């Protein structure tokens, strides 16, 4: 899989306004996770795969003096992030590949990523870069909707149009350990808004039945965390 194909896909989504629906769809899970991170005043945070920057801005507002840098391979997404930026917070956005982060060793106190890492053409290299740019003792938190074993995600790669890295929760844990992270753990986070009402459900390419959607919802997003 090439960065060019990923970039083109996300540029197209940004131009079609899909970034807003992704932000809305992921918002509750991210708010739950960020609320449990215990971010300290002044911490510097990397947001890997920032899209239009909505999570970057949430992280930057988490504590006094906190700063966040969002990176994304898509120039169109970063342009959207800059257009939506608030100058009342310490946040910025850069176009960058996950596998070659242009930051100093140990530059960040922690790293966060929502629904992005499995797009990487080289997940091991991307995780190793995260371990490099987070300081010793710092934390990484990765949240994924797509993981092997979750109902309803079969065929996502074909529908998205790019290859996706498909791993079980245990395989993801091993990948983080290979990259040098310690105390690796995972849990599942369920969107508190629920799957919706069966009576108003309309079948789609993504959700042919309400039962599939409900199973997907009940399984929850995968939250992976570790320490450098």
Mean pLDDT: 95
Structural class determined from secondary elements:
alpha/beta
Total strands: 7
How far is it from the N-terminal to the C-terminal residue, by CA?
Answer: 28 Å
In spatial order, strands of the major sheet run 3-2-1-4-5-7-6
Q: How much helicity do the residues have? A: 25-40%
Radius of gyration over C-alpha positions, nearest whole angstrom = 17 Å
Low-confidence stretches: none
Strand content: 15-25%
H and E string: HHEHEHEEHEHHEHE
Summarize this structure briefly:
The protein is α/β, with parallel strands linked by helices and 228 residues long.
Give an overview in words.
The chain is globular, with a radius of gyration of 17 Å. The chain has 8 helices and 7 strands, in the order ααβαβαββαβααβαβ. With 228 residues, the protein is of the alpha/beta class. It has helices at 3-15, 18-36, 54-60, 75-84, 123-133, 156-160, 169-178, 210-219; strands at residues 44-48, 67-72, 90-95, 108-114, 134-144, 182-189, 221-227. 38% of the residues are buried. The model has no long low-confidence stretch (mean pLDDT 95). Strands 3-2-1-4-5-7-6 form a 7-stranded mixed β-sheet, sandwiched between helices.
């Amino acid at each position: 899989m090439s960065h060019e194909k990923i970039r083109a896909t996300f540029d197209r989504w940004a131009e079609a306004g899909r970034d807003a629906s992704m932000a809305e769809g992921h918002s509750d899970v991210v708010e739950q996770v960020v609320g449990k991170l215990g971010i300290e005043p002044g911490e510097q945070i990397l947001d890997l795969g920032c899209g239009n920057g909505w999570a970057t801005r949430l992280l930057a507002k988490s504590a006094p003096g906190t700063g966040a840098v969002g990176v994304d391979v898509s120039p169109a997404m970063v342009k959207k992030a800059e257009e939506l930026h608030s100058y009342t917070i310490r946040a910025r956005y850069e176009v960058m590949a996950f596998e070659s982060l242009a930051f100093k060793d140990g530059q960040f106190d922690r790293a966060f990523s929502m629904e992005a890492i499995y797009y990487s053409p080289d997940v091991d290299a991307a995780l190793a870069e995260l371990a490099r740019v987070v300081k010793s003792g710092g934390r990484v938190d990765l949240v994924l909707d797509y993981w092997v074993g979750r109902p309803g995600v079969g065929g996502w790669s074909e529908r998205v149009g790019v290859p996706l890295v498909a791993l079980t929760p245990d395989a993801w844990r091993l990948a983080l350990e290979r990259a040098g992270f310690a105390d690796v753990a995972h849990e599942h986070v369920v969107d508190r808004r629920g799957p919706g009402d069966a009576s108003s459900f309309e079948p789609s390419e993504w959700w042919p039945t309400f039962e599939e959607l409900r199973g997907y919802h009940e399984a929850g997003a995968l939250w992976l965390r570790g320490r450098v």
